[in-house]
From TrEMBL:
<dbReference type="GO" id="GO:0005739">
    <property type="term" value="C:mitochondrion"/>
</dbReference>
<dbReference type="InterPro" id="IPR056798">
    <property type="entry name" value="ADH_Fe_C"/>
</dbReference>
<feature type="domain" description="Alcohol dehydrogenase iron-type/glycerol dehydrogenase GldA">
    <location>
        <begin position="28"/>
        <end position="180"/>
    </location>
</feature>
<dbReference type="InterPro" id="IPR001670">
    <property type="entry name" value="ADH_Fe/GldA"/>
</dbReference>
<dbReference type="Pfam" id="PF00465">
    <property type="entry name" value="Fe-ADH"/>
</dbReference>
<keyword id="KW-0560">Oxidoreductase</keyword>
<dbReference type="GO" id="GO:0004022">
    <property type="term" value="F:alcohol dehydrogenase (NAD+) activity"/>
</dbReference>
<dbReference type="InterPro" id="IPR039697">
    <property type="entry name" value="Alcohol_dehydrogenase_Fe"/>
</dbReference>
<dbReference type="GO" id="GO:0046872">
    <property type="term" value="F:metal ion binding"/>
</dbReference>
<protein>
    <submittedName>
        <fullName>Alcohol dehydrogenase IV</fullName>
    </submittedName>
</protein>
<dbReference type="InterPro" id="IPR018211">
    <property type="entry name" value="ADH_Fe_CS"/>
</dbReference>
<dbReference type="Pfam" id="PF25137">
    <property type="entry name" value="ADH_Fe_C"/>
</dbReference>
<feature type="domain" description="Fe-containing alcohol dehydrogenase-like C-terminal">
    <location>
        <begin position="194"/>
        <end position="369"/>
    </location>
</feature>
Length: 387
């Protein structure tokens, strides 16, 4: 006689708030949807001339940007392309793109690529609004990675001193998003899979991030289930467009668009990634590969009962038998994340990126927001373990 495991920790956070972002007009998804989706969205938001914002590699080494250019030219809506957006969105590139946007007489940005061009485009539009007044102009995002920057209303970029800073406004969220998996085929494997781990990071940290309501946490569970299945499948068969499309949808579920009543802090893995990424030139996807599993393990020691319950229940969606102990279940989840990173060929160390050990206390302090945080010493030890 078979039995059904009834372990289900009783989360009790039944109070909260949810609102859809004001800006997003639509998400079109499906292999090959670019040609019909982009004209539709231009009409929907009333845009006449678009500047494409992207990175150099995508522009010079693939035909992805040329496909977008062709659609815009067919509509007589092409205002040029700026392809000097680097990793972590340096401010120098943002300034150049602002100048080109004005010279082209553009009224919309079409951001093509990963989180850097999408966040850079938000910063460009933010700065233009500060310069000129009036409403924020709009962005159409065409992501080719799984970093999910297109679903947020904030933008992170690197200032002249090499520090990651952010701007946020509900109107900065892209007005339209096009998820065309065919456009991701040219994305390098390491970038594709590591940004998939970034999506895993989003889904896991939303289980304990402040102000995330229960329905979105359950979407995070669904995202985790799909990411754990389809990331290895995509590594095994990179040309499978259907698997890639499923991963784009899973990344969407991992960071479902929402408006917060007030600023909602990111989780510790993201905060550490922000401090490590720009300063030491570590890609965001790789920072998630480094930090997420040990941060989850730390939560077994430091998290509230409520947050522990949400984390432990993730095992059900990953089809991993529970241990009967909430703290052990969180450690099992941490091991599952670590094994996924290893199986995807993404394991690395801080030593590989030449992060000085003497910097670790300051990195922990900046990630936590204060030097006297009760878990500061534990976070320093966590970072030491990444060598």
């Amino acid at each position: 006689m078979s039995t059904v495991d009834t372990t289900n920790y009783d989360s009790t956070d039944l109070n909260g708030f949810y609102s859809w972002t004001e800006t997003l007009r639509g998400i079109q998804y499906g292999p090959g949807c670019l040609e019909t989706a982009l004209p539709k969205f231009l009409d929907l938001i009333g845009a006449k001339k678009a500047l494409i914002v992207t990175g150099r590699s995508l522009y010079e080494k693939t035909d992805v940007v040329k496909q977008v250019e062709a659609v815009l030219m067919k509509r007589d809506a092409y205002g040029g392309v700026f392809f000097e957006i680097g990793q972590h969105s340096p401010i120098a590139g943002i300034r150049k793109a602002q100048k080109l946007f004005k010279e082209a007489g553009a009224d919309v940005i079409v951001a093509v690529g990963g989180g850097s061009p999408i966040d850079a485009s938000k910063a460009i539009l933010y700065n233009l609004q500060k310069e000129n007044g009036g409403p924020l102009l709009k962005q159409i995002a065409i992501p080719t990675t799984l970093s999910a920057a297109e679903y947020t209303a904030g933008a992170g970029f690197t200032n002249d001193e090499g520090h990651k800073i952010a701007v946020a406004d509900p109107q900065l969220a892209p007005s339209a998003i096009i998820l065309d998996a065919k456009l991701t085929l040219a994305t390098p494997e390491r970038l594709w899979l590591s940004t998939g781990m970034r999506a895993v990071d989003h889904a896991v940290e939303n289980l304990y991030r402040p102000q995330v309501p229960p329905p979105l946490k359950h979407l995070g569970y669904a995202a985790l289930a799909d990411l754990f299945v389809n990331l290895p499948l995509s590594k095994a068969n990179p040309e499978d467009v259907n698997v890639r499309q499923k991963l784009q949808i899973a990344a969407w579920m991992s960071l479902w668009p929402q408006r917060f009543e007030k600023y909602s802090a990111v989780g510790l893995s993201h905060s550490l990634g922000h401090k490590l990424g720009a300063t030491y030139s570590i890609p965001h996807g790789i920072t998630s590969c480094l930090t997420l599993a040990p941060v989850v393990a730390l939560k077994a020691e430091t998290a509230s009962r409520e947050d522990k319950e949400w984390l432990a229940n993730a095992l059900f969606y990953l089809r991993i038998p529970p241990s009967g102990s909430i703290d052990k279940d969180i450690l099992i989840l941490s091991d599952a994340i670590r094994n996924l990173v290893r199986n995807l060929g993404l394991a690395s160390t801080l030593a590989e990126y030449k992060v000085p050990k003497e910097d670790l206390p300051l990195i922990a302090e900046k990630a936590l927001g204060r030097a006297d945080d009760p878990v500061h010493s534990k976070v320093v030890k966590l970072l030491e373990s990444l060598y």
